[in-house]
Amino acid sequence: VPNSRGNPEGVPDIRFAYLGRPVFLELKTCTGKTTTAQDQDHERRLLDGWQGGVFRSIPEVKAFLDKIEQDAIPAAVAGPGPLAGQKTGADMGSPSNASCAKLEGVQ
């Protein structure tokens, strides 16, 4: 069953390549929760070398992409694979209430 963005169940909202790495972004409101299918898909992608996670604000996504940029040169030397310790967008820090309110106000 497709979700609101037209993706099959569990598939992340946004998927793209960034600096030669496959990336996925699951976009949620401050209180939004992932489904079991999403959790399983995300784990499978992480094990396959994708970078990504659940993001609740624009600053969180920016911090995540900045981290990929910082690690791009060592990763090119070391080869493909997950960034050290990178599992979810939440690892980049929780958004403030102000950033959540601002994000949720955008339609």
Description:
The chain is of the alpha+beta class and 107 residues long. It contains three helices and three strands. A three-stranded mixed β-sheet has the order 1-2-3, sandwiched between helices. The longest helix has 21 residues, at 58-78. The protein is globular and about 35 Å long. The chain starts with 13 loop residues before the first strand and ends with a helix.
Please tag this protein with its features:
107 residues, 3 strands, 3 helices, alpha+beta, globular
Provide a count of the helices.
3
> Any idea what the shape is?
globular
Structural class: alpha+beta
Percent of residues in helices comes to: 25-40%
> Quaternary status of these chains?
single chain
Strand order of the largest sheet: 1-2-3
Short structural summary:
The chain is α+β, with helices and mostly antiparallel strands.
Please give the structural blueprint.
Blueprint: E1 14-18, E2 21-27, H1 36-47, E3 51-55, H2 58-78, H3 97-104
Parallel strand pairs: 2-3
Antiparallel strand pairs: 1-2
